[in-house]
């Protein structure tokens, strides 16, 4: 049975700050700590990030500030169950502004020298407003910007694309704020257009043990002439599963495996598409809709021939890095961030986002797979969590 999560009682004020009210006192939460970490969303990479920071500081020097949604999630149980005694669930944090205000209040009460927000995109405006009202705030706030979409890049132009760079520069004016941006785990991209002077932080990926990983029972066995194409992680619509399904008709020997929790839009597609049903019935599509442990995911990545990372957003991918660690080539869209990584390192190939382009690229990688595997062996040693931990902890 999970230990009780500590709940902080707070009350909002008119200027967005949150004053301390009641608190459940425990030895861990009440002692002076080095840092506080704020994360109110359990999906995807986020619990990994918090765990890396907690592990680096140690439970005696850190508190985790979060929401009930997080503490009730499978992801929290998987990655942070050992940190339950230093976790504080902040009530009524339904907006980033409320979450930031409550977190600042709790971090200060705990004596933390810094508040770290590893998923900081939605906190730029709240932090700017807070610092305008409290320019002498005695706490350093470190935001990691995860999405740095650029003008004239492969993603469609949105208002945030124009506003976010300006907000980042405005927040940087305050001495209490440190803004960083997430780059790929291999450190290929060191600067982003529109974000001058903002340092890069490598996407943290834990290097796996060199001990051979057993093939997952649900994963089909490799067969000569039958390449296994994998799609892994949280399976969002951005991963272009329908495109891969169409490409399977043009690669009649290939088998597609999908491993990871299906988001709602993807689940609806899988449940209703006739091509999906046909491929499943013929054994050419295997779906494992579940949250994988780190070792289970690593094993799956290492036992396919090619990992498809066909994201339509211009951003880093931890799956690309994890595939590299497992010495498995990747297939990525042409023209964006992931293409820059693969073209610089040789760990994968690029494709246009058409069924014909994907099918041709699968065949191309299959023919010359050894060359791509050798590139992953060269570059896997560059992947770790050190850069992420040291920069966010200010070491």
Task: Give me the secondary-structure topology.
Blueprint (H helix, E strand, L loop, with lengths): L5 E7 L5 E6 L3 H4 L4 E4 L7 H12 L4 E5 L1 H4 L2 H7 L6 E3 L6 H14 L4 E4 L6 H10 L6 E6 L13 H14 L4 E7 L16 E3 L25 E5 L8 H8 L6 E5 L4 H9 L1 H8 L3 E4 L5 H9 L3 E3 L9 H8 L4 E4 L3 H9 L2 E4 L3 H13 L1 H11 L6 H7 L3
Parallel strand pairs: 1-5, 3-4, 3-6, 4-5, 6-7, 7-8, 8-9, 10-11, 10-13, 11-12, 13-14, 14-15
Antiparallel strand pairs: 1-2
List keywords for this structure.
single chain; 395 residues; alpha/beta; Rossmann fold; 2 domains; 15 strands; globular; disordered N terminus
Condensed summary:
The protein has 395 residues and is α/β, with parallel strands linked by helices. The chain is built from 16 helices and 15 strands.
Explain what you see.
The chain is 37% helix and 18% strand. α6 links the parallel β6 and β7. The protein has 16 helices and 15 strands. The chain folds into two domains: 178 residues, 3-Layer(aba) Sandwich (Rossmann fold), CATH 3.40.50; 155 residues, Rossmann fold (3-Layer(aba) Sandwich), CATH 3.40.50.2000. It has 395 residues and is α/β, with parallel strands linked by helices. The chain has a nine-stranded mixed sheet with strand order 2-1-5-4-3-6-7-8-9, sandwiched between helices. A six-stranded parallel sheet has the order 12-11-10-13-14-15, sandwiched between helices. The protein is globular. α6 runs parallel beside α7 and α8 packs across α14. The longest helix is centred in the N-terminal third of the chain and has 14 residues.
